[in-house]
Amino acid sequence: FCRPLHCQLLFLKEFGAYSSNMAFDPLSLAYHEAGHAIVARHFGCELIDIFISLDDQCGGATVTACGLNEWQKGLIALAGCAAEVLAGHAVADDPDRAWEYVKDASDAQQAVGEITGLDIGDDGFRNAYDALEVEAEELIRRPPIWSAIVALAAVLAERHAITGATAMSIIDPILSGFAGHSQRASTPQPELSDTA
Questions:
Q1: According to DSSP H, which parts of 124-163 are helical?
Q2: Which residues neighbour 16 within 8 Å (Cβ) at sequence distance 6 or greater?
Q3: Residue 145 pLDDT more than 90?
Q4: H or E element in which residue 106 lies
Q5: Residue 1 to residue 53: CA distance in whole angstroms
Q6: What is the DSSP string of 24-74?
């Protein structure tokens, strides 16, 4: 998982392994955003759009508010980094990407705080955060979810931006057979008339 980025950057700089000219891998962004989007979809959210920006080395996934609880919000926040790491495309040594990891960790910390009522320094907070992190990794390792992440990341890496409808047309068939997948936000099916 993505551990504190500032520690990784200090280590890399201290041992000469860091260069500001390191090659950038667009698949890292694609896996990151696909991780967020797939887990949000898994919990029943509609996807609006997903994009990656190679110029800014960032991306985003816009989803509808869909009545998520705080734990689910935390899982979505951590799923991006987890997918990136699991795919072997993490670029945590890139300072231009640092804000993205920090934002995801901050969102997850807020979710843990809302659930537990604890602040970051309180006893038990780190244990709750670690449990959330482990669950996010376990969730994305499930074969249907991982297959959907891989499929969406491939398209996103090629196109750099896709609509939610396109994303859902790629991932819904993969997730539809998964017993834990929420059906509440699935694409509406046309109603059939009773006349034959």
A1: 125-141, 143-159
A2: none
A3: yes
A4: helix 98-116
A5: 23
A6: P-HHHHHHHHHHHHHHHHHTTPPEEEEEEETTTTEEEEEE------HHHHH
Cβ pair 140, 148 in contact under 8 A: no
Locate 145 and state its tokens: 């979810």
Q: Rounded CA gap, 120 and 122, in Å?
A: 6
- In sequence order, what are the residues at sequence separation of 6 or more whose Cβ sits closer than 8 angstroms to the Cβ of residue 96? 56, 57
Instruction: Give the Cα separation of 86 and 139 in Å (integer).
Output: 12
Name residue 86's amino acid: L
Q: Across-strand partners of 63? A: 47
Residue 177: CB atoms within 10 A of its CB come to 8
| pTM of the predicted model as reported, rounded to 2 decimal places | 0.74
Question: Could you tell me the two tokens for 131?
Answer: 């449990």
Contact 138, 159 (CB under 8 A): no
Residue 17's CB: how many other CB atoms inside 10 A? 10
**Minimal CA–CA distance to 100: which of 61, 151, 149, 154?**
61
Q: What share of the chain is helix, strand, coil (3-state, %, to 5)?
A: 55, 10, 35
Q: What value, to the nearest 5°, has the Cα angle with vertex 175 and ends 155 and 74?
A: 85
* Consecutive H or E run containing 194: none
Digit-coded pLDDT (tens) for 6-56: 333 333 334 343 333 334 578 888 998 999 999 999 999 999 889 887 776
